[in-house]
Specification:
With 543 residues, the protein is of the alpha/beta class. It contains 16 helices and 17 strands. A 7-stranded parallel beta sheet has the order 9-7-10-6-11-12-13, sandwiched between helices. The chain has a 6-stranded parallel beta sheet with strand order 5-4-3-1-2-8, with helices on both faces.
Length: 543
């Protein structure tokens, strides 16, 4: 009988530092999701500091790690130490690494306080689902009460992220926070868009620029991902793209919608209020992937950013997107894709229609092409500058002096859109050539056999039969390409030429003689070119 958890379970999953094997942890986190857990997945090659910081900020019950890199004893012990030092020793640690973690090392880690390291024997006895249910049952604890810690944070965070994280957890569990100070003018940027448009990558680039340019400012990111209707589990995977968020002045919290057919959690406003109460200077709210009609993020933000890609279908589809009516700025991400410039023109036309800006110049419209995956992308720089101007206009908040070039140039991608399939075209061409050679060789073999049959039956068989053979020879000869016919016609001449002592050819009326044989020390004549002794025309042509 499978275990049914009582509480909402949140677990951080990752593969250890210097470990590029993420197949195992991906299997485990998928089964955990299937059991109803909310998984904050970090991917592979993650350090202890990153994992512990994430676990504390996300207020999880457990951490699940796969480690195949050999340094597991130090890795897990340091993780336990860092959790204890930061007052979060209640977070349980689970791990596995197949045969790389020896039984003696497993016992040592268990004695040190690691909740469970699973061995290959455990896998055979319990099975995958048995191990996952063991993790679920051990993590099924209620995180309740105020976050009061005797020790200071050792991770160097500017804010007490433990307290912030627990307040948000309490809000998700139905315990509304009391006496929050939310009166300050703290701008909230709402980022929404279709699934896979690159919202997290754009968010990460905005966070990076904010932290780099405003040295005294703090930022909070609230990211929402959908819960599965069938299982209740969720993959909160936005942190995989968040490379800039591991910073003392930054805080991030991932929320599951815990409902279907919605792009935001019901506790988004409480999470925003808690971050405002904590005194963050800037808050970003990122929604889950939305459909054409969704504009719910507008209820929670001061400034809205809609992220899309050039691959939206026909231009008429733009007329159905609600956010094109309301978004302060529209970002066309993945601008290196084919058709990006056409998409930019179409979106600008639609923006003019929606807002009645018939005489506005295209460069004045808040529609910007970006490549968030590219370092220091000019489009993202222009987007960041535009957002700061809109924030100042709508909230009167000015974070400080910040300048980029006045116009955003269209950036060239590493591989131009017209040459994205360049290597594929080369391989296709090679495969097509190989197939052509194979087909031509088959035809040549049939011709060789027919010519041999005609020669053998001449004067012995009925004339009607010979006529049929001649007809087949004519047919298959017509199937050969001119190049194939030429190669076969001159094959015997080529064999004769290469068999001579000298090969002669003319360059600018001068005859060049090339020796075709060399002598070994024993006086043996060794040909420089040895042609195959094939007789079948198909073999000759293929060679």
């Amino acid at each position: 009988m499978s275990y049914t958890p009582v509480n909402k379970i949140r677990i951080v999953t990752a593969a250890a530092l210097f470990d590029g094997h993420d197949a195992a942890i991906n299997i485990m986190r998928r089964i955990l999701q299937g059991k109803g857990a909310e998984i904050i997945h970090l991917g592979h090659n993650r350090s202890v500091k990153e994992i512990v910081e994430t676990a504390i900020e996300e207020d999880v019950q457990g951490i699940a790690i796969t480690s195949y890199q050999g340094g597991h004893v130090e890795f897990f012990k340091y993780m336990k130490d860092l959790l204890e030092e930061n007052g979060c020793g209640h977070i349980k640690i689970f791990g596995g690494g197949g045969g790389t973690i020896l039984p003696g090392e497993i016992e040592e880690l268990h004695n040190y306080g690691i909740t469970r390291i699973y061995s290959p024997d455990d896998g055979r006895q319990m099975g995958l689902e048995g191990m996952i249910e063991d993790v679920i049952s051990k993590c099924d604890i209620h995180l309740n009460g105020k976050a009061e810690y005797a020790t200071a944070m050792k991770l160097g965070e500017v804010k007490d992220v433990r307290k912030i994280a627990r307040q948000i957890t309490n809000a998700e569990n139905g315990q509304a926070p009391s006496a929050l100070q939310t009166g300050g003018n703290i701008p909230v940027l709402g980022i929404t868009g279709t699934g896979g448009a690159g919202k997290s990558s754009v968010t990460d680039e905005l966070v990076r620029r904010f932290l780099q340019n405003f040295n005294s400012k703090t930022i909070a990111v609230i990211s929402v991902d959908p819960s599965k209707k069938k299982t209740g589990g969720a993959l909160l995977g936005d942190r995989i793209r968040m490379n800039a968020i591991s910073h003392p002045r930054a805080y991030m919290r991932s929320l599951a919608t815990r409902d279907d057919n919605t792009a935001l959690s019901h506790h988004v406003q409480e999470a925003i209020d808690i971050c405002k109460d904590a005194g963050f200077d800037f808050i970003i709210l990122e929604s889950a992937g939305v459909g054409q009609s969704d504009a719910s993020i507008l209820d929670y933000c001061d400034v809205s950013l809609y992220v899309m890609t050039p691959e939206y279908g026909a231009a008429s589809q733009l007329e159905k997107i609600n956010m094109l009516d309301y978004a302060d700025i529209i970002c066309i991400n993945k601008f290196d894709k084919a058709g990006a410039l056409d998409a930019l023109a179409d979106v600008k036309k639609q923006y003019k229609r929606n807002h009645g800006l018939w005489t506005a110049k295209d460069e004045e419209l808040p529609v910007i092409g970006t490549m968030a995956s590219k370092f220091n992308d000019e489009g993202v720089n222009h987007l960041f500058e535009s957002l700061l101007k809109v924030i100042e206009k709508k909230t009167t908040i000015n974070f400080g002096e910040f300048h980029f070039s006045e116009t955003a140039k269209v950036s060239q991608s590493i591989i131009p859109a017209k040459r994205v399939r360049y290597l594929s075209e080369i391989s296709e061409n090679n495969r097509n050539y190989d197939q052509l050679v194979k087909d031509q060789a088959t035809i040549a073999s049939k011709l060789y056999k027919l010519e041999g049959s005609l020669e053998a039956l001449a004067g012995k068989a009925d004339e009607a039969l010979l006529e049929v053979i001649r007809g087949q020879i004519t047919f298959y000869t017509g199937q050969l390409t001119p190049v194939s016919r030429k190669l076969l016609q001159h094959w015997n001449d080529k064999v004769t030429e290469y068999s001579k002592d000298y090969y002669e050819y003319t360059v600018r009326d001068k005859v060049i003689r090339q020796e075709m044989f060399s002598k070994s020390l024993s006086g043996t004549r060794i040909p420089k070119v040895v042609l195959p002794k094939y007789r079948d025309w198909g073999d000759i042509l293929q060679w």
